[in-house]
Design goal:
The complex is a heterodimer of chains A (205) and B (198). Chain A has 205 residues and is an alpha+beta fold. Chain A folds into two domains: 105 residues, Nitrile hydratase, beta subunit (Cyclin A, domain 1); 81 residues, SH3 type barrels (Roll). Helices cover 30% and strands 17% of the residues of chain A. Chain A has a five-stranded antiparallel β-sheet. Chain B has 198 residues and is of the alpha/beta class. Chain B folds into two domains: 46 residues, no CATH class; 146 residues, Alpha-Beta Complex (Nitrile Hydratase, Chain A). Chain B has a two-stranded parallel ribbon with strand order 1-4. Classes of the chains: A alpha+beta (205), B alpha/beta (198). At the A-B interface, helix 1, helix 2, helix 4, helix 5 and strand 2 of A face helix 1, helix 2, helix 7, helix 8 and helix 9 of B.
Chain lengths: 205, 198
Amino acid sequence: MDGMHDLGGRQGFGRVRHRPAAPTFHADWEKRANALFSLAVRHRLFNMDEYRHAIERMEPRHYLAASYYERTLTSIATLLVEKGVLTHAQLETLAGGSVPLALPSAAGRTNVAGREAFVRDERVRVRGEHVPGHVRLPAYVRGKTGTVVGKSPAYPFPDAHAHGVAASPEPTYDVRFDARELWPNAAEAAFVHVGIFESYLERAP
Amino acid sequence: MTTENTGERTVASLEQRVAALESVLEARGLRAREFAEEFRHVAEEKWVPENGARVVARAWTDPEFRARLLANGRQAVAELGIEMPPHHGHLVALENTPKVHNVICCTLCSCTAFTVIGLPPDWYKDLEYRARVVRESRTVLKEMGLDLPSDVEIRVWDTTADTRYMVLPERPPHTAGWAVERLAALITKDGMIGVARI
């Protein structure tokens, strides 16, 4: 989905609030939230792709205003309710107040038929697809052409795995793009590399 | 407090939401509170940048290890007893040179090789870094205190899948003859993300 989470290249943001040796956590509840997510995944209450997608499905104003660990909590709460572990009303009673959840999911999809394997140095193009469900592709490379510089082992296909759809695992390719082709006349010189699932790619014409 | 009034019912605070979710998992027989204790320990003691620092220092001093690290990062860090979670199937070490500077990010969320370089810092997960570093890397790095010469090529790596990256910084010239432990003490998480030089 073309969600609010897909931030790469969006303009209007200010300086990074960087300090050397910056902390990961600011409060103890954040560690407990992170622990809950890890425990739930370990016990297969949900998988990593479902977890990511439930964050992406947060109402956009909620997504932008929430801290990182509030997004974690919202995803866990949403998935537990969607999977029938408890009802939203039961969760709100336990929490002693309202608990905002993410919005419902669109359908997932399986691997793209007729996908091809690629080798290092090959020119590839990112398919110009708009996927309604979970997709692990930043929109800034959609339809763009780049060069394969690496290949990973096969992983569960996120577009399927986030939705309980059957699919084959597939590799990802590290693809190198020229930033000035991604944002013509509107980016600083650099090479930007993106890890891209095989189904998202086609041979460059 | 983050409690706000929606006009209908007060939004539960983040602490209340955590406690509620903990009790849901406890009710299913998962020891959420005990696991939180264990998690605190692992996050603070085990997933620390000192792991990656040992990897970098070894690569600086042992050319054969460096070659193995560049060929198969996951296997090379395992030699030093550093584990990666099963879903991090692949670790790519990105070698900085006098003319090439690498920097990592995750524009979609917060993915990092956290067992190697440590859990990501707050700013790495903020909207600003995620939005800007792919499009205006030189300016962002400069704002963060790393002013690269104009003839240095910048390579940004967006961690959008399950391959994980770490930057192998350049060894500072004044460290010739230093022992591995002394070198490791120089290496920071920011250096392995690529927003600082060592």
